[in-house]
Amino acid sequence: MIGVPSPTVPLFPVPRSFEVLAAPGPAPGAPVAVRHEPELPEQGYSLVRDAGGTQISYRDDAGLRYAHQTLDQLRADPELSHRAVRVRDWPDFPVRGFMLDVSRDRVPTRRTLRRYVEILAAARMNQLELYTEHTFTYAGHTAVWAAASPLTVDDMRWLDALCAAHGITLVANQNTLGHMERWLAHEPYRDRAEKPEGFTIHGRHRRPSTLQPTPENAEFALGLVRELAATVRARRVNIGADEPWELGKGRSAADAAERGLGQVYLDHLLRVAVPLIEDGYEVMFWADVLADHPEVAGALPTSGLVPVVWQYDGPVHARAALDRATPEQRRQWAADGFDMDALAGGFRERAKALTSAGRPFWVAPGTGAWNSVIGRLDNAVENLLDAAEIGREHGAGGYVVTTWGDHGHHEPPPVTYPGLLFGAAVSWCLDSNREMDLAAALDRIVFDGPGLGSALIAAGSVADVVDAPLLNGSALSAVLFGREDVPAVAPEALAEAERVLSAATDALAHARPAAADGDIAVRETAHAIAIARFALALLAAGGVARLTPAAAGDLLHRLDALLVEQRACWLLSARPGGLDDSIATFAPLRSALVERAAARQ
């Protein structure tokens, strides 16, 4: 049979090998033959449909599951259902995961968690992590989680069973060094802090966030991980240990000066990790400290410990943002000890300590959803591709798409979906999916109907349209929440951004998602776009201080209406705990508008 080229492959993810054959396909009800073929790559399968029926060969249970997914898509496609085809496919990365932040205010409802699992399964992702700081009902620690609507033991066991039924591994994820501020804010835990009085970073004082690296604190953190891990069946955990801002600057300063900060960090990491490895767990941890202290990378255990290299700005985007940095910003970065220019090297630079030491690692890019209002999709695509390219080049065993909740997790779930789906596709097969039609894939795989995908893609492009790149955020978010590095935006860029968002709003009115939560996704997306348009108005004014009192009054009324809808949309997909804290991040902006509006009196 002769293969017929197909410029557009209506399958997700696009297979690495797909042919439409010059022959008739199977008749309705034709037999399906299934055969185990151990010579295929891990999770791989082949599928042939012709006049005689369908023949499936598979390597393992996962390969058989993915073969049936492909068969379902072929049967549902009006063009391919009656054609003969040949598919041969397997993944670039054995582990393709998603990590959802559930600790920065937004704790999902069970319905939202189920929706994520369904999307992950359809996208052939096989691992889920819920990033946890304090939002689990740890025994004896009620004061820490009481107001957070935390996940319970029953929640985790329910989710673990749901994941297992969909071929997904639920991995316990609990931070164990940095980002412990929700614990250290409470009196019984404050003395565990490296700097109980707090610290200064980016010119601002923050409350304590890092545990002092003592054996007692390592045992405390280890107990949290073990308690959470006991609720799921996976023998893999993530202990975090990232961004310990105060390490070596407080109680461990003398030890760090004597032995080196990298060694102090490694000792704490191993105090937590080694007992877990001895328990039979594979232990993931964030590898950012290794990038700054490559001298300790070679001292990591040779098995059982998985460094995960993360990076959330694409190299081109990072360079554009860095080139626009002011001298004051550069002085602040230097004072804080950050080598920001390394970010322009992307995953290659971030992984250098490990590649130089010959150590295997995983990669973790991001959806670009956080600190964005409506997404930073152009940056996310570059970042996701960079991770796939460097990870594949170095044989990374895992690719974990992350979505965080920095500064209030204002973005609803649909804003994460474009980056999540694109990351799933390129981690399955980079070569066949880098030019995929993402809007069409969203409508087909996530929303089961037209319109919403293109609206999300258009809205997600606005961060790039305003042509004011920032690191780890967008100008839209920066102007709302008081970042001091809000760049000036050209009037023509603002006008184009408003046109794009207006068109996306209009498109939502014609969206017809048939998914069970389609109406919720439309409402959440429409609200996110409305907040983004409000942010454009602030950018156009040059900030609150430049508003006339009348204009400030108008924006104040507009903001209050947006916050009412923000509360309503939040409760459609998230639990109430954390909502007040998230809404409170708008308080400085609202106060500034109130003060400016009052100036006319």
TrEMBL record:
InterPro entries per UniProt: Beta_hexosaminidase_sua/sub, GH, Glyco_hydro_20_cat, Hex-like_dom2, HEX_bac_N
Gene3D superfamilies reported in the protein's UniProt record: Chitobiase/beta-hexosaminidase domain 2-like, Glycosidases
Signal peptide: none
SUPFAM superfamilies registered for this protein in UniProt: (Trans)glycosidases (SSF51445), beta-N-acetylhexosaminidase-like domain (SSF55545)
A GO term, aspect molecular function: beta-N-acetylhexosaminidase activity
Cellular-component GO terms for this entry: membrane
Beta-hexosaminidase bacterial type N-terminal domain location: 35-90
Glycoside hydrolase family 20 catalytic domain residues: 93-321
Keywords from the UniProt entry: Glycosidase, Hydrolase, Signal
Biological process annotations from GO: carbohydrate metabolic process; glycosaminoglycan metabolic process
Family: Belongs to the glycosyl hydrolase 20 family.
Protein name in the entry: Glycosyl hydrolase family 20
Organism of origin: Pseudonocardia hierapolitana
